[in-house]
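Provenance and format

Records in this collection were gathered into a single text stream. Each protein contributes a sequence line and a token line. The two records reproduced below are adjacent in the stream.
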Amino acid sequence: MRKLGIYVQVPFCQTKCTYCNFHTGVVASSRFAPYVEAVCGEIRAHRELFRTAGVGCSAAILEKADSQEWLCHEAVLDTVYIGGGTPSLLDPAHLQSILDAIRETFNGNGEGEDCGGQKSGGEPPHSQEVTLEADPETIEAEKAKAWAQAGINRVSFGLQSFVDKELVAAGRMHRRADIYRAVPILRDAGIRNISFDLIAGLPHQTKESWRRSLEELGALAPEHVSIYLLEIDEGSRLGKELLQGGGKYSAGAVPSEDEMAEFYELAQGALGAAGYHHYEISNWAKPGFESRHNQKYWRREPYLGFGAGAHSFSGAERWANAHDAAAYVHAMESGRLPVEQHETLTVESALEEELFLGLRQLDGINVARIERMYGVALAGRFDPLASAGLVEREGGMVRLAPGKLSVSNEVFVELMR
């Protein structure tokens, strides 16, 4: 039986970080309730909305089954991820409403009907991974208890740094002290799976300050860690300033690409020494705490996204809702799913995804499996990369060479030529 993931997008923040290129906004809290109502409506009516919008209905690539059938009749919900934005800004009652709508519709609690109206065994609540993204300054004891009671058992913190100077430059609301205050609150509430995000390359970051962030992360011992290199693109204020050669937003204090790569390699060493398993280019986990939801993305497993800007993947198609939250709510009030992007994958594009996403995982690509699935011969495709020391082979597996993870994008470009 296939496993299904649900992603819910909450595109609201307290402030816009200087490096952020996401479609999020700072809005009055009075807009939260109508948005949550629209999301719950989309979840409950998703089958008819998909059908009317013409998404989620194509035959899955290399399979004969109708994707609507296996998404709704056969798939069992095992992960929920509420991301953003800053979804921890919502009232606990809002989050409870979203989770109730998901459980009523997709039968994640092992009782009742599945989303097609058929009796199903479902997935016991304790075996589900339910993640909430949160910022440290939004954590309160009563909220954390309500989250745990609602079934949220994993919290992903966008910390980015433990150094206040770097947090101020990046436009973050929290400070180092907020992190140390928030983590015990979550632990006391019974949340035993916590993930930290750090960004390598923030303005004013040095090797010494980066080491300090890694040391403090190790002292708090989260179950999961994500390390991202600062993205520089015109979609963010800082990225645009850097590309234009300006000095706003501490653009002149951004580390070089070589320094960012060095920071990444320092993180590899520190996290490995602390017992974390490096399982994806940007992700480390203590044994058994790998992100089950995010693994669906890398393994090309099905997931449905709800909310403004949320993306979905059926196995044959990818589609996304309109990013503007107000336009999304208006469309849902009109009984229409505002699909902004829709792509039916070809075998060729699916194969490219297999290679790109497969190499992001430290285990690598099972070449024989992909050759069998797609009817292609891949061995020669990796020869130039292996000769250049960019990938390594072991049995039937091909993976990025350990020393090339920090320059993975260059490897991907070469592979897709």
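Adjacent record:
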Amino acid sequence: MTAIGPGVEKFKPGDLVHGEWKHRQTIFLPEKNLYPVYPQIDCETMVFTDPARFALAAVHDAEIKLGDRVVLFGMGAIGILACQMARLSGAAQVIVVDPINERLELARSLELT
């Protein structure tokens, strides 16, 4: 965070924050839409917060629950995360589809299928 507006109480310039925004170098957001990045969380982990939110939204939208059989198309970063979240949500079987063999092998190595 490089600057703050009037009335901001939770953050100060220099704080690391995350939230939902477009891929831009600068953005103005309300304080309520930002969350602190704690010092014990490294930047490599933070890179995955946005893709993880998309994957989790897909799992929630699909209402995946215990015992479901799930088919996921596309094993890019978001697809791999969605597979893991589907499993954690109780899916009994997760079937993955991707035209790229390396991605299918990655899913198999992670025991997602």
